[in-house]
Amino acid sequence: MRGIIVVALSLAANGTQAMQPPGDAQIKADLSRGEELETRIAGDLNSDGVDDIAYIVRGDDKRTLRVRLADKGKIDFSHAPLGMLDLDAYPLGAAEMSVAKGVLVVKDLTGGTTATMATYRFRLDPEAGRMKLIGLDATMYSRTFAHDGSELSWNLLTGDVITSMSGQTIEVLNTDAEGRLVLADVLWYCNDRFQPKFMVNLATLTGAIMVALGQHHAGLFSNDDELAARLSDAGRVTQEKLWRMPLGGEYDKLIDSKNADMKNIGGRYGGSITAAQFLQRFVKDTPWAHLDIAGTAMGAPSSEISQSWGSGFGVRLLDRLVRDHCEA
After folding, report:
1. Orientation of helix 271-280 relative to helix 179-194, angle to 10°
2. Number of domains in the chain
3. Burial 127-162, CB ≥16 within 10 A → b, else e
4. Per the CB 3.0–4.6 Å rule, which of 47, 188, 215, 301 could disulfide with 282?
5. pLDDT per residue as tens digits for the range 163-207
6. Full domain range(s) for residue 30
7. Residues 37, 44: contact at Cβ < 8 Å?
8. Residue 129 phi/psi, 5° resolution?
9. Residue 57 and residue 35 in contact, taking contact as beta carbons nearer than 8 Å
10. 218 shares a domain with 150
11. Are 217 and 241 in contact (CB under 8 A)?
12. In the predicted model, is pLDDT for residue 151 greater than 80?
């Protein structure tokens, strides 16, 4: 009986205060060096009548949505971390968040001359013990009015298995890595439809290539040494410099999946390499090169050939490649 009384007294004295979501000071204490709190919101995400907390943390080259669920203990209430979800690392402003009927809504504006207003909707999956993306609405528009806007909307759950144009199945473990899903189908279609002598794709695909190479070289991945050498030579002549990165079976197995032919991410390390390995599975034996220009296409250091935020990286490079090897 005495123990029950102690618990009751503790709840009476501290329960109301403890039920409040953690304050900014508590959240900041949880941040790593170089990270800062962008925005936060409190709301009931698991329908237990107690406010949970969601907040966005921004670092030098990473931005994450973090969620903490209120945890009812015998004595007090605490907030247990539920996990982290990657967002675009370079927003045009702070995100807007709201919670309604257990759904966390995040509105995020990102991009450059072409901007994207994305509205993400997340719901707690109690069995998996994590938040799942249940929908995304995106409006793309030109800030220079160079083209009309377009609207996209779809529902995609983390953990879903989808079938690509090639017939290969993909387990979606990161909904932020959606660009490679589109690019995979584009590569497959071009190869199957036109049967080219070689293919070169350019994409601002990964933040990992910026960690590896900074903003002075683009990453070059290729299944063909001759094509890689030609691109490297063109890069030196035009000052759109490339650095060849490795591909191989030891990296390719990192995207194997037990539930599908492959998964769309390969883990924490070597992210730009595993992204390239993912693309390589859609080109067959055609000579192919993938240029990851995430570090050089936007916000690269000013130079003789790059005077604005958007550098146009790759135009001179491909023009030189065609002039040297594809014209009579």
Report:
1. 30
2. 2
3. eeebbbbbbbbbebbeeeeeeeeeeeeeebebebee
4. 188
5. 999 999 999 888 778 889 999 999 999 999 999 999 999 999 998
6. 2-154
7. no
8. 70, 35
9. yes
10. no
11. yes
12. no
